[in-house]
Amino acid sequence: MNRFHAAGLVLLLAIFSNNALAFGPSVSDPIPLWPKGAPDEKGKVGEEHDTTKPNDGLVAGKRVIRLTNVSQPTITLYRPSKRRANGAAVAVCPGGGYSILAMDLEGMEICQWLNSIGVTGVLLKYRVPERPGDTNHILPLQDAQRALGLVRYHAKDWNLDPKRIGVLGFSAGGHLTANVSNHFDQRAYASVDDADQVSCRPDFSMPIYPAYLVLKNTEVSPDLHVSPNTPPTFLIQAEDDGVRVENSLFYYLALKNARVPVEMHLYSTGGHGYGLRPSDKLISGWPKRAEDWLRTLGVLDRTHP
């Protein structure tokens, strides 16, 4: 190879690298939610760490990050390529029984799927485990409200449409998704800055195999306060889910009775805690059902930026 060919190859590689940076998906550094520390946080839960051990159960043959002792909540932006980006964003709430966060299975991997359909994923690392006395999960609700308000406040800076910001969560994160979808008129904390002056209401809501939505007698938890202002909702669950398919069934009925647009898909088998990792169960196709639903809402229309 002569020096002219070598120089040309270097130039092509540089152009390719720059294009990859300009047009490929990207991930931001974690952004702290609270500039002066999280409200009502005692800070005595111990060091944040992954609790997964080598012999812990795999999902679809892969390990799961089970993060605990989160006292400094953050959001991380997963941006789609510029060619795909449509301006919509979804805050993603991993599950884990309000004890841990399944950060890859129900977090990072979900954000990557959202990127594939042009949506910015906003991975929420909220506070776990449940603090003593916080039986209504107010601290995670504070984090979710703050996250949605922060994304909407920075929508212009982050090339997002402030009218297409939703929330999606799994299991306990599905409960948090429903919780923030019904508690948005008033913050569960004292205002911190201007970001708390904009709405934290999600424009759409996606609880996936949600937990804790119903009482033992199948009554929807009275803490949820479902109303006509609850955002359009999409539900997925399996009948053999160990946390009870009634969570979706009776939440669906509460939404329907409140005249909230709602779509639900129930499968006979699938269990719990699968994220979007593939299996031989039909429920593995739920992301396509979700994409179709988002499309019917106009969320995936490329109207912005």
Report what the structure shows.
This protein has helices at residues 3-23, 104-116, 138-153, 172-182, 246-257, 286-297, and strands at residues 26-27, 31-32, 49-50, 66-68, 74-79, 89-93, 101-102, 120-125, 165-170, 205-208, 233-238, 262-267. The protein is of the alpha/beta class. The strands form two sheets. Strands 1, 2, 5, 6, 8, 9, 10, 11 and 12 form a nine-stranded mixed sheet that branches. The chain has a three-stranded antiparallel sheet with strand order 3-4-7. α5 links the parallel β11 and β12 (262-267). The longest helix has 21 residues, at 3-23. It is globular. The N and C termini lie far apart (44 Å). The model is unreliable at 1-21 (pLDDT under 50).
Question: Main attributes?
Answer:
9-stranded mixed beta sheet; 305 residues; alpha/beta; Rossmann fold; disordered N terminus
| CATH C-level category | Alpha Beta
Order of helices and strands: HEEEEEEEHEHEHEEHEH
**Structural class designation:** alpha/beta
Report Rg: 20 Å
With helices defined by DSSP (H or I, 4 residues minimum), what is the helix count? 6
What is the CATH-assigned architecture?
A: 3-Layer(aba) Sandwich
Major sheet characteristics = 9 strands, mixed
What portion of residues is helical?
A: 25-40%
Overall 3D form: globular
Q: In terms of per-residue confidence, which ranges show pLDDT below 50 for 5 or more consecutive residues?
A: 1-21
Write the CATH fold name: Rossmann fold
- On the 0 to 100 scale, the average pLDDT is 92
| End-to-end Cα distance | 44 Å
- Estimate the strand proportion: 15-25%
